[in-house]
Amino acid sequence: MRRPAYSSPSLYSIAMNQKIDVDNRICLRVYYRTADNLLKQANIYREEKNLKDLFVMLLRYSFLVSETIPSHSDYQTLCPKERSLHMKKVHGVLDELETLKPKVSRQMFDPMTPPSSSLKLQPSPPSIMARVQPEALPVSPSKVADPRPGPHKLSEDGLPGSNSYRDLHIPVKIMEDFLKLARENTAKNLETCGILVGPLENSAFRINTLIIPKQTSTSYSCEALNEEEIFDVQAKHSVFPLGWIHTHPTQTCFMSSIDLHTQYAYQIMLPEAIAIVMAPTDTSSPHGIFHLSDPGGVSVIRNCQQRGFHSHEEPEDGTPIYEHCSHVYMNSNLKFDVVDLRRDEQQSTLFNKQPSVIFLRTPAIAEPAPRAIVLTGAAALSTIIGPSLVFFSSSPYV
């Protein structure tokens, strides 16, 4: 398949940064859904006349469809309808890239042109985030240290790299209200999980919906059920999966090895995706907003074939394997909705979450299983990237 030519070294650098390595542990359908989401983001940038970010999203899509997906081990046997659809769409995308290329190249070297979201250095988090930062403590027996926040860097030429992020705004009350929804489970030492979704507007993501899926829980795991319901909600409200949230009922606030694999599955599909850990009994750090360091942490998890609880080596570049997010803003002006799918089907409704709090019945609960591997302070919530996208249980892949 043809690909656009890049006469400008800067455009070539952008192109190289949009490549996504295939991971055969991730279900093929997930890659196609990621392709759909990239086109949705491109449509938003097109409507906003944001040519630079439009160019970047179309580049990312073209590499995903023409190189990453065809390299997947299931490419020839699964999802024939999606394969045919996207192979047709990618030709139009390549034509548009050729049209955009000279315009974007001129804008990049025009000093009067403001930077796009893909090119700017993300600012430090606001002061409210300071309360999220715990002291650095070892996570025994893992070799991974607790996260340390640090500034994200641009590449030397100032172009977008894998570690430059668009801003992500979180409603201030969403964590507090999630804990209230999880209160009954927490009292029984059972985990609760949720999915964070929202729109892309003016080159920034805004979480505006918390989805509580049907789920079964133990003291160290939570499994979401009926994942198609989750996608129905996302499609109905035209929102993107921006991350996930879960409780550690009695554990401390950090990411277990399984949590790291869960976050990897989100983050390789959307670099801005976050993981929120709520640890109500951890008085020093009751909550944290994390992501994998990139490229260090992402590379470690990509190359890790282990499942369940296990230790990870530190990244070769010396960074922590995961860290506090510096692209996140706690926004007191954001409203959000809760879709609690644990309720009976006829009662599942969209609730506006300002200012009231909705108390809903506890999900079906599984009996706690015996702990097979001891990892002090770890909670075993995981996302299975399975037939569709999101499951939470003891294994991150199928």
UniProtKB/TrEMBL annotation:
SMART domains: JAB_MPN. GO terms for biological process: protein K48-linked deubiquitination; protein K63-linked deubiquitination; proteolysis. Its cofactor is Zn(2+). It comes from the Eukaryota. The keyword Ion transport does not apply. InterPro entries: JAMM/MPN+_dom, MPN, STAMBP/STALP-like_MPN, USP8_dimer. Residues 168-298 form the MPN domain. One of its GO terms (molecular function) is metal ion binding. Keywords: Hydrolase, Metal-binding, Metalloprotease, Protease, Ubl conjugation pathway, Zinc. It holds the Pfam family USP8_dimer. PROSITE patterns: MPN. Residues 107-126, 136-161 are annotated as: Disordered. One of its GO terms (cellular component) is endosome. Belongs to the peptidase M67C family. This is AMSH-like ubiquitin thioesterase 3. It comes from Striga hermonthica (Purple witchweed).
